[in-house]
Design brief:
The protein is of the alpha+beta class. It has one domain (2-155): Pnp Oxidase, Chain A. It has helices at residues 11-16, 22-25, 68-76, 145-155, and strands at residues 2-6, 29-35, 41-47, 51-55, 58-64, 78-85, 88-96, 101-103, 106-119. A hairpin with a 2-residue loop joins strand 4 (51-55) and strand 5 (58-64). The mean pLDDT is 95.
């Protein structure tokens, strides 16, 4: 069952998305859902590399400018980020602020955090828990040109 933690990232999530420990988070996949033109949810998998917390209420996302997720986010302005990792199940509901900024084939979105939900088993579910999350390999090097492009897009004023 999920419970709202409010319209801001709690300190632990703010730190996680600040990219100060980015190398240790590479290899973890993050589902992001946007709303399609037909009213259905459109999933995309991204990583901590594409996300940056500017503050507790603002996230930046850098994704391929020509992707369906970018188009959905630009047209309908809503998305939900999922963190599903051992001991951590969080849903972050966001709303885009204005048009995306173009950055070398990427679209950088600024998103307002509207609600952070924490999901945890109910008492009736006993010891049930998430034991693994979405992972990928090989982990990218932050020295690769494309990774530098993503980071520059996220960090530009």
């Amino acid at each position: 069952m999920s419970r709202s933690l409010g319209p801001a990232l709690p300190p632990g999530l703010l730190t996680r998305f600040s990219q100060t420990a980015l190398p240790s988070l590479l290899g973890l996949g993050l589902p992001f859902l946007t709303l399609g033109a037909d009213g259905t949810l459109h999933p995309m998998l991204c990583s901590y590399l594409e996300w940056l917390a500017v503050d507790a209420r603002t996230l930046r996302l850098a994704i391929a400018a020509r992707s369906r997720s970018a188009r959905n986010l630009e047209e309908r302005g809503v998305g939900t980020l999922l963190l599903v990792e051992p001991g951590l199940t969080i849903y972050i509901k966001c709303r885009a602020m204005g048009a995306p900024l173009p950055a070398g084939g990427l679209a950088r979105f600024s998103l307002t955090v509207e609600d952070v939900l924490e999901d945890a088993p109910t008492e009736g579910e006993g010891d049930v828990r998430i034991t693994g999350g979405i992972t990928y390999a090989p982990k990218p090097s932050l020295e690769e040109a494309w990774a530098k492009t993503v980071l520059a897009a996220l960090r530009a004023g």
